[in-house]
Design goal:
By secondary structure, this protein is of the alpha+beta class. About 25% of the residues lie in helices and about 30% in strands. The chain has one domain: tt1808, chain A (Alpha-Beta Complex), CATH 3.90.1570.
């Protein structure tokens, strides 16, 4: 369950001083969010989806798939650091942008839903990603075997149960993922 810590103003330096205890610590505008270690099903779905995104993006010079832990920040780098489960970072002159990445470097952010606190993924992180210029955001539910997809500028999500098609600008063809196959591969 992602819980907001009671300290009112956190910095990345304070975050770095926290113990390496298996929890995920993220910072949004100085607010600390702590998420327990992911479940096995979470990690199996992350792995299956990452492998498909990587295979799709790798042959071209548009973006690269990244799996967390990997830092992404807002322009106020001192008070912001998140780690999307999976994301696609746009290439600049066929190279990754400087690390840690900016949210504006992302073409796609993906979170695999935490069943203990879905509001963190569905509200807090959705608002963060879409308001920071990420063109597309997916929330994957291993329990329901669905994808919720938000696109920048759209108020509501699409709830997908059979397939998702993603075609970022610059790619020669779209990525099509048959969702039953993905979930069977990951969880079967």
């Amino acid at each position: 369950m992602a819980m907001r810590a009671t300290h009112t103003e956190w910095t990345v330096e304070m975050l770095d001083a926290l113990p390496d205890d298996g929890n995920r610590y993220e910072l949004i505008d100085g607010r600390l969010f702590v998420t327990p270690s992911p479940s096995l099903n979470h990690q199996l779905v992350v792995g299956a989806l990452y492998s498909r995104l990587r295979a799709y993006l790798r042959p071209e010079s548009v973006a690269r798939a990244i799996i967390s832990p990997s830092d992404v920040r807002r322009p106020d780098r001192r008070r912001n650091r998140v780690q999307p489960d999976i994301f696609a970072v746009r290439l600049i002159d066929q190279k990754r942008p400087p690390y840690p990445f900016e949210l504006s470097d992302l073409l796609l952010a993906v979170e695999v839903e935490s069943p203990k606190n879905p509001a963190y993924d569905h509200q807090t992180k959705r608002e963060l990603y879409l308001s920071s210029g990420v063109p597309e955001y997916w929330i994957v539910s291993p329990n329901a075997r669905t994808f919720a997809r938000w696109r920048a500028g759209e108020e509501f999500a699409e709830l997908l149960t059979s397939r998702i098609v993603w075609h970022p600008s610059g790619m020669t063809s779209p990525l099509t993922i048959e969702l039953p196959d993905l979930f069977d591969d990951a969880l079967g």
